[in-house]
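*Target chain*
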Amino acid sequence: MSPQQPRYTAEETARRGDEIYEREVRAKVEAAGSRGKVVAIDIETGAYALGETALGSAKRLRVQHPDAEIWFVRVGHRALHRIGVRSTPKKP
């Protein structure tokens, strides 16, 4: 199986993915207590899958939608990943 080539620009993928997440997915996954889990969203169909990791959620989504154009969102967070270590305040 050869790697899938993106059909949309990064900006268009992000716009579509965020729109679908806000309109159709967010309320469902937040109500289910899924904070911290990763949602993989097919930006063409609106189908989505939830998993502990991006890879896990993508695999789940591709079972039903093998050609999915995927956007990822971490439930309850602004970003999917964090770069670097989190600084903690020093104790006096």
Q: What stands out?
A: The CA atoms of residues 40 and 72 lie 5 Å apart. The chain is about 35% helix and 15% strand.
